[in-house]
Design brief:
339 residues, four-stranded antiparallel β-sheet, 13 helices
Length: 339
């Protein structure tokens, strides 16, 4: 019959108590090193802003919408005639064209006397831990903020773009379509400026996309209207000049010529009038396609830093080292139990 192995907690506690000096030394060193490490990491602040864009619904209370509601998805808020639905807005952060526009956001922090754009704020005005300052390599200081092609970035520009993707998170609630923009920065004021600016840029991007076809139609009809107006003005001047020059002439050929010019002028006026109506209609469609945005939650200046959690980090390290030290001291007892 196999002998049952037992654990005597008194012996274990005695062994650990006898090593109290070792625990004191190790935990004291861990506490000091953890404090030195976590204090040197710059603190960051976070804030959020929420908005709800107007979308075109084409489902109403149909069967598909009813089925979707069973799984908690409100398609009446999300289904649109656009190729880019609100659910795809977070993917805009993957697009270099959208991210590089964030480079130009104006940053102002009176406390630190910083006034620059977001690109140079991340490049030149970020606090770093002491080890990063020692091992960081000095990069090329060319005019890399000038972007000829957002899809062909330099190494420095790509590094800044990746930092932006980490600092800015866009989420969309699949149930109600609310867009949440979360931003992180080393300054509470910069954090708010960033959130407001990204929200405005996202609104402009959505508006530009939603109104793109309508604006194209409007510009097309505007061009045709201007050409028709010029043709009408030319025909009107020609008719006026011919009428003035031949006002006393009674020959039938001159009258027929005058009628032809008048008819041509009238045709060009009718064309101009019709195109002008089309232009005004297209202009109205631009306004109709322009979405409205409701700001549900404005970005506030955060009062407390969100990271790093210094006390939690130090306590976690002390607990972890305590467990590791205990396992090392009791390694023989543990091995006897499992062997």
């Amino acid at each position: 019959m196999e002998k049952t192995k037992t654990i005597d907690l008194r012996i274990i506690c005695r062994k650990l108590y006898n090593e109290r000096k070792l625990f004191l030394i190790i935990l004291s060193a861990t506490f000091i090193l953890s404090c030195l490490y976590i204090i040197s990491i710059p603190r960051t602040y976070s804030t959020q802003t929420k908005m709800a864009p107007e979308v075109e619904s084409d489902l109403g209370n149909g069967t598909l919408n009813s089925l979707a509601s069973v799984i908690g998805l409100d398609l009446s808020n999300m289904k649109t005639s656009d190729a880019i639905t609100p659910l795809l807005y977070p993917d805009l952060m993957e697009d270099n064209g959208f991210v590089t526009n964030i480079f130009k956001i104006k940053i102002k922090d009176p406390q630190k006397k910083i006034e620059t754009d977001y690109y140079h704020y991340l490049k030149d005005f970020q606090e770093k831990s002491w080890w990063l300052k020692i091992f960081s390599l000095k990069r090329n200081e060319d005019n890399d903020q000038v972007i000829a092609n957002p899809y062909q970035l330099t190494q420095q520009q790509n590094i800044i773009a990746e930092k932006i993707r980490k600092n800015i998170i866009i989420n969309v609630n699949s149930k109600n379509g609310v867009i949440t923009i979360s931003t992180t920065a080393q300054s509470p004021l910069v954090c708010k400026i960033l959130a407001d600016s990204v929200r405005d840029q996202l609104q402009k991007h959505i508006t530009a996309y939603r109104t793109n076809k309508a604006r194209t139609d409007w510009l097309y009809y505007k061009k045709l209207t201007e050409e028709a107006k010029q043709a009408y003005e030319k025909a009107r001047q020609l008719y006026g000049s011919y009428t003035d020059a031949n006002s006393d002439v009674v020959l039938q050929s001159y009258r027929l010529k005058q009628e032809d010019l008048e008819n041509d002028m009238q045709l060009k006026f009718n064309a101009y009038s019709a195109l002008n109506n089309q232009q005004q209609s297209a202009k109205a469609r631009v306004q109709e396609r322009t979405p409205a945005f409701t700001i549900i939650k404005g970005a506030a200046v955060p009062l407390k830093p969100t990271g790093p959690k210094r006390m939690i980090f130090v306590l976690s390290m002390l607990v972890l080292i305590s467990i590791i030290t205990t396992l090392i001291i009791l390694r023989k007892d543990i091995s006897e139990i499992f062997i």
